[in-house]
Amino acid sequence: MTSQAPLPPYPIGTPGTPWGAAERAAWLANQRRQRSYEQEVLAPLRATLPAQAEVFEYGQLDYRALGQGVFPLVAVRSRDWRADRPTVLVTGGVHGYETSGVQGALQWLREDFARHAEAVNLLLLPAISPWGYETINRWNPEALDPNRQFRADSPAQESALAMACVAAQAPRNGPQIDLHIDLHETTDTDASEFGPAKAARDGLAFEWHAIPDGFYLVADGERPEPAFQAALIAAVAQVTHIAKPDADGCLIGAPLQQPGVIHYAKRELGLCGSMTAARWVSTTEVYPDSATASPAQCNAAQVATINAAIDYLLKERVRQAAA
C-alpha cells in the first residue's frame, strides 16, 4: 500500500473517546472464526515433529467467560538440552492474523530444526495467539494487543504465559537465551482495519503510514547489533525483496537505520522481542500483500531469517573463541 485512501470513522465508539466495556463487547461481537488452529497448527505440528524435538503444552488460554472457548498453547524444544550450548528462541503468531509468522515457524520446524539441534538448544513457540489465528486478528478477545503486553503483571494471557514458558526453560541459574527471532508480518489491513481500530479504542486520531512493499526487520534500539541485522537482510534478499524507505527515509514512521532495518524501543513498548536479555534479537516483518510475493515466499523469508540468525550466532562463538 503506497497511498492514503480516505477512511470513514471507525464504526465502533465515539471519535476522541476511549472505548469502555460496551465498545469492547461490540467489537468482540463482530469477530468470527475463519480458520482452525487445531487443523492448521496443532495437527501439522504433531504430524511432522522431528525426532530431535519434543512438544509440550505450556498453558491454556481460557476465554469461556467471553464465549470464546479454551485454546491449548504448545511449544517445541530440543530433546537433548545441554547447558554448554547456546540457546535459541523462536516465536511466531504473537499477532494471530500474521499467517507466515505461524506457518513459517512450522515450516522451519519441519525442514531445519533437526540440523540445528546438533549445535544449539532450540525453543519454539509457533502460535502464541491461537484465538487471533482463528479470527485473523491482531488483538485478543479483550481488545488487547499481546505484542504490547510483554511486561511484568501482563494483562494479556498470551504474553504472560509465553514469558513464563521461556523463563521456565532458561532459569536464572541455567542457560540464558542467546538469540531471539520473533516472526511477524506487516499487512495492508494494518492501515485499513487494525490501525484505525487501535486509534478508536484509545480515543486518538489515526496516524496513517504507508505499508512498506517488502521484507524488513525491527531491531531493538537498546541492542541493535547492525552487523547481525545486515546478515539477516542479506539472507532474506535471496528469497524475497527488501522494503524501500518512503520519501521521508522511514518505514512505518520509523527512520531507516540501514537497508531493510528500523529500530524500536522494544522494552518500553512491551514487545515480544524484549522478553529476554538475548544479545541477538530481531523481529521480522514480511509483506504478504505484495503483488510480487507469494505465501510460499513469505514462509521462506521467515525460515531464511531463523537459519541465518543461528548461523551468525555460531560463527560469532567461533570467532570469539579464537580471539
TrEMBL record:
GO terms, molecular function: hydrolase activity, acting on ester bonds; metallocarboxypeptidase activity; zinc ion binding
PROSITE patterns: PEPTIDASE_M14 (PS52035)
Family, per entry: Belongs to the peptidase M14 family.
Taxonomic source organism: Inhella inkyongensis
UniProt cross-references to InterPro entries, sorted A to Z: AstE_AspA_cat (IPR055438), Peptidase_M14 (IPR000834)
Key words of the record: Hydrolase, Metal-binding, Zinc
Keyword flag Nucleotide-binding: no
GO BP: proteolysis
Domain Peptidase M14: 33-323
Cell membrane as UniProt keyword: no
Membrane-spanning residues: none
Protein name listed in UniProt: Peptidase M14 domain-containing protein
Cofactor: Zn(2+)
